Amino acid sequence: MAIITFSREMGSGGIPIAQQLAEEIGYELVNGDALKEAAPDYDLTEAALQQADEKPPAFVDTIDRQIDLSVHRIQLFVLERALAGNVIIYGRGGQDLLEGIQSVLRVRVIAPFEERVERWAEREWIDPDLARFLVRRSDQQRSGFIKYYFDRDWDNPLDYDLLINTVRMTNDCAVNLIKTAVNDPYLSDKEHLCKKKIEDLIIQKKIQIARLADERINDIWFNIDVAGGKVVLSGHIHSDAERRAAIEDAKKVAGVKNVVDKLKVIHY
């Protein structure tokens, strides 16, 4: 159940590499098109995707709760595809969602800024100044998305297994490098350990979604930890009623074996 994640810069040429790779090795490509197709199954509207997909929050509490709900639904979609294995997860913070899953090959596709601007202007038939604005905005949004939701520097090369500069190699060369890397025994030897971890991540994500969707719960910052289907709720919550609602939501999620309540009620 090998998993490949792609982090890319706008105009870097990552999508042709991912598409060619998916065709050659027979993996499912989980990208924006796949997300749009599956969106109705995850209660995601077109407007929700426009607002939340790979974008930082608005920093307005009432809006951000809805954005967070949409982000978690997108992440559930990604995790469920990852559980099936043999997938290429294109963007959406895939490698951060799967942190600690050792059967993941983390790929980063880059190119110099001005090269990306030129490519985008040619691709979209737009003025170079507009292309420069769009590329810079995309970089800032994606970097802000990763920083806010995963507290990570998007540009840190140490967070990736394979860094590909598309002005220094052809797509064929890039695809061959990834194909070699994904067959490394280090990845395949870890596969049997990873399925259960992803199942726990899916349970955790479903509980997080239930918490955000439950209007009975105002305090959405308590901790949710899952191991082997056992759920531990910890941290603080504002009332006994919210505490009961949180436990009830967790127990309703498929795959939950039991719920351990370590929540502390702190009245404000």
What does this structure look like?
The chain has 268 residues and is an alpha/beta fold. The chain has helices spanning 14-25, 32-38, 46-52, 61-84, 94-97, 113-124, 128-150, 171-182, 185-188, 191-213, 240-252; strands spanning 3-8, 28-30, 87-90, 104-110, 162-165, 223-227, 230-237, 258-265. The strands form 2 sheets. Strands 2-3-1-4-5 form a 5-stranded parallel beta sheet, with helices on both faces. A 3-stranded mixed beta sheet has the order 6-7-8. The longest helix has 24 residues, at 61-84. The protein is globular, with a radius of gyration of 20 Å.
Mind sketching the topology for me?
Elements: E1 3-8, H1 14-25, E2 28-30, H2 32-38, H3 46-52, H4 61-84, E3 87-90, H5 94-97, E4 104-110, H6 113-124, H7 128-150, E5 162-165, H8 171-182, H9 185-188, H10 191-213, E6 223-227, E7 230-237, H11 240-252, E8 258-265
Parallel strand pairs: 1-3, 1-4, 2-3, 4-5, 7-8
Antiparallel strand pairs: 6-7
Helix pairs in contact: 1-8, 3-4, 4-10, 6-7
Give the low-pLDDT segments. Answer: none
Number of strands: 8
State the fourth-level CATH superfamily of the largest domain: P-loop containing nucleotide triphosphate hydrolases
Share of helix, binned: 40-55%
Mean pLDDT: 93
Q: Please give the CATH architecture of the largest domain.
A: 3-Layer(aba) Sandwich
Compute the CA-based radius of gyration.
20 Å
